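To illustrate the input format used throughout this study, we show a single complete record. The first block contains the structure-token representation of the backbone; no residue identities are included at this stage. The design step must infer an amino acid for every position from geometry alone.
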């Protein structure tokens, strides 16, 4: 057990981290182009934040949170999603007093959920999320959907589709709850225990049940879209108009409710078709009441979350090759007692922005060359007594076998030239 990672967690090894960095670089670029700036929130928060924000009738709160008491007997929870922490930071730092909208993103943020590990969703996984505070128009919703759609397409995810829905607001949702409870009344006795507890407190959550029998029983449930108030209907119509104008293929799916209680109006999912069926790669929506619910001013907001592991899994399944960068540009080898000159040459090359290294283990020259080959370094520099005495270096292209001699002071420039820079 000591040398085994806990179930549902996974190491990202140095041989694989470049793939994460590639995806993260695209995510940062997409966020920056739309004016989003990075926020970094703690890995854990007070449990009350998630009870009030996420909702105590959700699967996340009821079944999946990692909650514990700290040494001060405070209830602490490892964050099971990113939005609540971003809202807490927004409130604590009074960002609502700044110019709005406030656009922020988080990247490689660890998310913890105690659930059966599955492909692309671990007990500790990582998310890329965007949150926009202070923008009430449907153009803000469309902007996020478009950003996510283009980002995934740029990375190489194929067969993408967008599913959207509106789950109304506090004005029109009570009418829908009444309709839904009437529909469920004859069926609830045949549903799972979790659905039975949700029936009175939050019937909308019943539609989010993952139990197959429960899904079959709600297949013909009434749609929220039939009872939207004028404001919500207009917002949803404008969203569709924006998506059509952007050329984004979408469909309305009245069964989308998302797994969090704070959503209002727009909810959406980006779906991709795989050989194992449909897979949700990104989900989000509008949460116009959450800021006020957590003690802040009335504040419209919209956001999404995207699992990084799931994106990488999809790229693998579709055969997308992420280019592997060279570990080094040049490897410095030395003979005899020239370890210190080799060391100083490596430092000077690094000062010039060149990725360089040397042997630190006392290998023979032959073994140094063998190791240099294993690293994949395209160039190799050799320092012997003659080279040090004459103030020169020998630089060899490990692929073409081309070899040049250059003055020590010109080593960096010659390396760049041989690299084609």
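Output of the design step:
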């Amino acid at each position: 057990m000591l040398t085994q990672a806990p179930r549902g967690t996974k190491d990202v090894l140095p041989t694989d981290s470049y793939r994460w960095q590639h995806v993260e670089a695209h995510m940062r670029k997409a966020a920056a182009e739309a004016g989003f700036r990075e926020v970094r929130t703690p890995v854990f928060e007070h449990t009350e934040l998630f009870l009030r924000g996420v909702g105590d009738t959700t699967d996340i709160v009821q079944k999946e949170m990692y909650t514990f008491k700290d040494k001060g007997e405070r209830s602490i929870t490892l964050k099971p999603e990113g939005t609540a922490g971003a809202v807490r930071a927004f409130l604590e730092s009074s960002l609502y007093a700044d110019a709005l909208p406030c656009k922020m993103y988080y990247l490689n943020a660890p998310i913890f959920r105690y659930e059966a590990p599955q492909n692309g969703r671990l007990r500790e996984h990582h998310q890329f999320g965007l949150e926009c505070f202070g923008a009430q128009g449907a153009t803000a919703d469309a902007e996020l959907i478009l950003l996510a759609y283009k980002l995934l397409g740029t990375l190489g995810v194929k067969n993408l589709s967008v599913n959207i829905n509106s789950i109304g607001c506090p004005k029109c949702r009570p009418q829908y709850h009444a309709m839904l409870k009437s529909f469920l009344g004859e069926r609830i006795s045949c549903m799972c225990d979790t659905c039975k507890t949700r029936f009175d407190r939050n019937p909308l959550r019943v539609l989010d049940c993952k139990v197959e029998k429960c899904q079959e029983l709600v297949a013909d449930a009434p749609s929220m879209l039939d009872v939207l108030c004028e404001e919500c209907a207009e917002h949803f119509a404008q969203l569709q108009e924006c998506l059509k104008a952007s050329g984004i293929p979408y469909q309305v799916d009245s069964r989308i409710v998302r797994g969090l209680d704070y959503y209002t109006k727009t909810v959406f999912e980006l779906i991709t078709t795989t050989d194992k069926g449909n897979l949700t790669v990104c989900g989000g929506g509008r949460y116009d009441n959450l800021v006020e619910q957590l003690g802040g001013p009335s504040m419209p907001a919209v956001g999404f979350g995207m699992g990084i592991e799931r994106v990488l899994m999809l790229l693998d399944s579709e055969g997308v090759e992420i280019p592997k960068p060279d570990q080094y540009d040049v490897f410095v080898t030395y003979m005899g007692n020239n370890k210190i000159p080799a060391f100083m040459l490596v430092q000077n090359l690094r000062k010039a922005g060149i990725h360089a290294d040397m042997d630190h283990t006392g290998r023979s020259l032959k073994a140094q060359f063998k190791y240099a080959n294993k690293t994949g370094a395209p160039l190799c520099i050799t320092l012997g007594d003659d080279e040090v005495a004459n103030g020169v270096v020998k630089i060899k292209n490990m692929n073409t076998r081309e070899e040049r001699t250059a003055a020590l002071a010109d080593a960096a420039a010659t390396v760049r030239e041989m690299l084609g820079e």
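Structural context for interpreting the output: The chain has 15 helices and 16 strands. Residues 156 and 320 are 6 Å apart (CA to CA).
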